[in-house]
Design brief:
Blueprint lengths: L1 H6 L26 E7 L7 H11 E12 L14 H5 L7 E6 L6 E7 L4
Parallel strand pairs: 1-2
Antiparallel strand pairs: 2-4, 3-4
The structure holds S-adenosylmethionine.
Protein name: Methyltransferase type 11 domain-containing protein
InterPro entries: Methyltransf_11, SAM-dependent_MTases_sf
Organism: Streptomyces pacificus
């Protein structure tokens, strides 16, 4: 993230390094302040329960979480770290709306868009 920060400088962009498994999302992201969280090829590395509950707390009431991930069962050589189907099916728990779209013909990578508050 540090190198991206120096490469893509823009007054309205801030880059921060954060280990989501080591700690909660930093406090300067106030509750209900985040419009969109893009989680692309990262979910398989994370403590999902913790990350999802953190994101739910920080997103605006109409906020969106976009998750794009390889599917574990569809990676025959396990070259890419994937999330199990069963866990993908449960991603929508606690969200008002969940839309899934498989991104390749054999469904090896999927995208899930989660929207809206619940609980
Ligand atoms: C396959 S790369 C994807 C990078 C980028 N999102 C993309 O789509 O090109 C996996 C990323 O997950 C990040 N990652 C892994 N564990 C993490 C953690 N505990 N907290 C934050 N990021 C993590 C790594 O830093 C790495 O950038």
């Amino acid at each position: 993230m540090r190198s991206r920060g120096s490469r893509y400088n823009h007054p309205r962009l801030r880059y921060r390094e954060h280990d989501f498994n080591a700690g909660a999302i930093p406090n300067d992201f106030a509750p209900e302040s985040v419009d969109i969280v893009v989680c692309r090829l990262v979910m398989a590395f994370l403590d999902r329960a913790r990350f999802l509950s953190d994101v739910r707390r920080r997103r605006r009431p109409d906020g969106v979480l976009y998750v794009m991930t390889p599917i574990y069962e569809k990676q025959p050589d396990h070259a890419h770290r994937g999330v199990r189907e069963e866990a993908i099916a449960r991603l929508g728990d606690g969200w008002a709306e969940s839309t899934r779209c498989d991104l390749c013909d054999d469904g090896c990578v999927t995208a899930v868009v989660l929207r809206g508050p619940q609980g």
